[in-house]
Design a protein that fits this description.
With 419 residues, this protein is an alpha/beta fold. Helix content is 27%, strand content 23%. It has two domains: 6-245 and 371-406, Alkaline Phosphatase, subunit A (3-Layer(aba) Sandwich), CATH 3.40.720; 247-364, Domain 2, Phosphonoacetate Hydrolase (Gyrase A, domain 2), CATH 3.30.1360. The protein has an eight-stranded mixed beta sheet with strand order 7-6-8-1-9-18-2-19, sandwiched between helices. A four-stranded mixed beta sheet has the order 15-16-10-17, with no helix packed on it.
Length: 419
């Protein structure tokens, strides 16, 4: 009897496509040769893990699903409040304020009646839970694991972020999820090389060691899939990253700069609230300050730290909503300068009150730089012939492609099926 179709998705957080080479990631380079390789794959904006997770899970851009960055601003009790999306309780707070989490159904919700989903993730709690924010399947994370209905699971993950945790996660994923439980969708999200790259130079021995580690984890999954589906017809294997990284050239304190220029009355004032997202920032405006949007945008355009400044109807061009308190999207200035290890891409970064990682000289993401917007994307199995594809592709195309392989409708998703 023919086995039911399945999909396996492995994400190497922050691994840019250009760093997948035979000398840095031999298993991934070999897998690329066996796969449909989407060489033009792009991330979303902001190119942050939490936004990427929501976009991948819903097959839709931020303007549709509503999760606008690693940092977001909510309208609470008449005030604009800045929050970290990465905290374990963020989704509960989002639900209490807006009445919902994501504005689009996730693949976990769509697959609940059709074999279900299991996600094992070692990134931030917020990014992990965004794969299935409303408890339709299983999500395993070190901050707490949840089953259908959001019920806490006793067989959670006792691991730490980083390489050791990723290794333990991968072993359990292959043994328990792929071999024993066999859901329709299995997602493994590794913390490396992102976790290390925020603290070291891109291309440094420490960074390359974490790329090699992630490469070995992907290869363990690939070998397990080969045993379970030798013919490569039942299981669609998706190996990808959510975004890449750029070297931080310098950091700016955008709140302080706005106060000094007179756009904010004080650092804690809420007429204009900055949501820092690494190499990008989103600026939210109280109703009383919305008349200043155009003038502030033009001021930002004249600053030496600015790359692209977008406001008004043009926010839709970046996949962002044009209604609500969001007023300006700022992608920081970047260039193609190489660091001391020969890795190209350097960007200005915005200091965040929620993180002390990514000082100058280390890796960061969030903006529109060529490296951070260039994840890798390989699809193997499911009848897809191998070879490089030049067609445009994005993170939002992964979910509809997976659902198509599983024979499930992807109605309402903005992405398209990759072939």
């Amino acid at each position: 009897m023919k086995k039911p179709r399945r999909a396996v998705v492995v994400v190497c957080d922050s691994l840019a496509a250009d760093l997948v080479r035979p000398d840095t990631a031999p298993a991934l380079a070999a897998l690329r040769a066996q796969s449909a390789h989407f060489a033009s794959a792009r991330s979303v904006f902001p190119s942050t893990t939490r936004t990427s997770s929501a976009s991948m899970a819903t097959g839709s851009p931020p303007s549709a699903h509503g999760l606008l960055g690693n940092t977001m601003v909510l309208h609470e009790d008449g005030q604009l409040v800045r929050l970290s999306v990465g905290k374990p309780g963020f989704l509960d707070r989002l639900r209490s304020v807006t009445g919902r989490t994501l504005r689009c159904p996730t693949w976990a919700e769509r697959l609940a009646p059709y074999g279900g989903s299991i996600v094992m993730s070692n990134v931030s709690p917020g990014a992990a839970y965004l794969q299935d924010p409303d408890g339709f399947g299983h999500v395993y994370h070190r901050s707490g694991s949840r089953g259908p209905g959001g019920i806490a699971l006793e067989d959670g993950l006792s691991i730490e972020v980083g390489a050791v945790g990723d290794a333990a996660l991968t072993e359990r994923f292959c043994r328990e999820v792929l071999r024993d439980r066999a859901p329709a969708l299995a997602v493994l999200w590794l913390s490396e090389p992102d976790h290390t790259a925020h603290h070291v130079a891109l291309g440094s021995p420490e960074h390359l060691a974490m790329i090699a580690h992630a490469d070995a984890c992907v290869d363990q999954v690939r070998r397990t899939v080969d045993v379970l589906d030798p013919g490569g017809e039942e299981i669609l294997l998706v190996a990808c990253s959510d975004h890449g990284m750029e070297t931080v050239g310098r950091q700016i304190d955008l709140d302080t700069l706005l106060v000094e220029a007179g756009w904010k009355s004080g650092l804690e004032s809420s007429e204009v609230v900055v949501a820092p997202n690494g190499n990008a920032a989103l600026l939210y405006f109280a109703d009383s300050a919305r008349a200043d949007i155009s003038a502030l945008a033009k001021w930002l355009q004249d600053q030496d730290f600015s790359g692209r400044v977008v406001w008004g109807s043009q926010l839709a061009d970046l996949g962002l909503p044009t209604g609500g308190p969001l007023g300006i999207a700022l992608a920081l200035r970047h260039d193609a300068v190489a660091n001391s290890h020969g890795v190209t891409g350097c960007s200005v970064s915005v200091r965040s009150p929620f993180s002390d990682s990514s000082p100058p000289g280390c890796g960061q993401h969030g903006g529109l730089g060529a490296s951070e917007q260039h994840p890798f994307l390989y699809l193997r199995g499911g009848g897809l012939p191998p070879g490089e594809r030049s067609q445009p592709a994005s993170l939002v195309d992964i979910a509809p492609t997976v659902l198509h392989h599983l024979g499930i409708a992807a109605d309402g998703m903005h992405g398209r099926v990759l072939r």
